[in-house]
Amino acid sequence: MELTIARHCVAKGDDGLSPLQRALLDNAQRIRIAEAPTGAGKSYAFQRALRDRGERVLFIVPTRRLAQNLASGLIQDLIASGWSEQRAGDVVALWSSDQTADLKAQGIVHINGLRLRQMQALKLGSRDGEMIVAVPEVVSALLVRRRVETGQAGEGVFHLLRYFDHIVFDEFHTIEARGFGLAALFARLVTVKHENGAEFGGAKLSFLSATPLDLLPTLERVGVAADQVAVLREELVDDGRPLHGDVVLSWRDAPSLRELIQEHIEDIRTEIEADRQVVVIYDALVALEKDLPVLARWLTEGGIDPARVLVVNSVRDSIAQGLHQAGFAIGRKCDPLAYDLILATASVEMGVTFRDANLVLMEPGFEPMNFLQRYGRAARRDADGRVIVRLDAARLGCDPWRRSLRDWVQAHAGQRLGIEDLTRVL
Questions:
Q1: At 66, is the secondary structure helix, strand, or coil?
Q2: How far is 260 from 266, CA to CA, in rounded Å?
Q3: pLDDT, tens digit, for every residue of 268-318?
Q4: How far is residue 222 CA from its own chain's centroid?
Q5: Residue 24 and residue 403: Cα distance in Å, rounded?
Q6: What number of CA atoms fall less than 13 Å from residue 83's CA on the CB side?
Q7: pLDDT per residue over 88-117, tens digit each?
Q8: Closest Cα to residue 364, out of 352, 353, 349?
Q9: Which of 9, 30, 11 minimizes the C-alpha distance to 22?
């Protein structure tokens, strides 16, 4: 069974921004909920706020891999736009457990003190904008300290609202309870007005997601009225800046993902020879780990170098960098762009950038939104691609959403549909 999800674009203004990107920067409401398809460039809007407007941004993301990816990508984009490496590095900071370990290795003891100074300004006297890319737990730990260290001010959420022009929660549909508590507190504070009309700071708060966010009822329960929130959606158009080309979505009945990989070895090699990547996404970590020795043999026999294969999952990302006994690269510091084939679990749904990944073999994921995130990895920009999904008949009875999606694909087999249709059914 297969159908085609048609090429789709967003409008592009003279300044290079889409309507949603412009609204994220200019909408008058201090709270914005933004939904846009994968690849729409939600985070790029805030890069432009830094570069063109000299604004300060606190960009909060759910995983350390995504934080690392965004920070390094921002620096490279600034350099590509004409900035020096020194200037670009001066305006971007990364707050994550990995960065904490790196600072300790450099002999920096008072890391909280360093981050408090970065919160105030990454580089004193600079007229450039700045961005701190952080994971929620680091921000929470910095704001809720058991004691104030000698020589440090006890700064908190009110200071963040004053120091930054934008506070952004990216991939908000994935946020956990602690992160949501922080987000709800920000949301309540930015909507408070004193009798004299004064407000807490000037930061605008944005919640970003590639999936629909029904946040208004919850925000109302913490005291934020619906008319204080701007709900923004990116409208798709036929001509403009392309997000994805035509993508053939196929469902295949296979005993395991390993057999599906073996069946498509030739297709994988063809993509690699064309200097494109191939991505394989498993549901279960144990299945991926079990398959690695067999895959090493099959891939080698198929003319694919195991050293050019990267394994991405929570276990393998616990080390910085290394080599699996099967010959595959592992570790969170391996650059995915440097490899031809990615063998992964849900770890790649966020925070991993691919190089022209026009062929994706995958299992559906545990929730509908997992499926949408995985599908969105393929055929970015104007490239055409193919997503092949393993159909596990035994799981259809356990997961009604998988059965509904299978039935939808079957009912529209051979048709050409829009990404809105796929999003709607998910």
A1: helix
A2: 12
A3: 999 999 999 999 999 999 999 999 999 999 999 999 999 999 999 888 877
A4: 27
A5: 37
A6: 20
A7: 999 999 988 776 666 666 666 567 767 777
A8: 349
A9: 11
Q: What is the SS3 assignment for 277-308?
A: EEEEECCCHHHHHHHHHHHHHHHHHCCCCHHH
Q: How far apart are CA 351 and CA 374, in angstroms?
A: 12
- Tell me: pLDDT of 69 over 90: no
CB 42 within 8 A of CB 170: yes
Amino acid at 144: V
Token representation of residue 2: 């297969």
Q: How far apart are CA 171 and CA 213, in angstroms?
A: 10
Helix (H, G, I), strand (E, B) or coil at 357: strand
Residue positions counted in the chain: 426
- 234: its two tokens: 């990116």
Is residue 368 within 8 Å of 405, Cβ to Cβ? yes
- Nearest-CA neighbor of 304 among 256, 268, 261, 264? 268
Report the half-sphere exposure of 183 (CA within 13 A, side-chain side).
Answer: 30
Residue 70 tokens read as: 């965004």
What tokens were used for 165?
């022009």
- For residue 145, the model assigns a pLDDT of 60
Single-letter amino acid code for the residue at 277: Q
DSSP at 147? S
- Which pLDDT tens digit goes with each residue over 116-159? 778 788 887 778 899 999 988 888 888 776 555 555 556 678 88
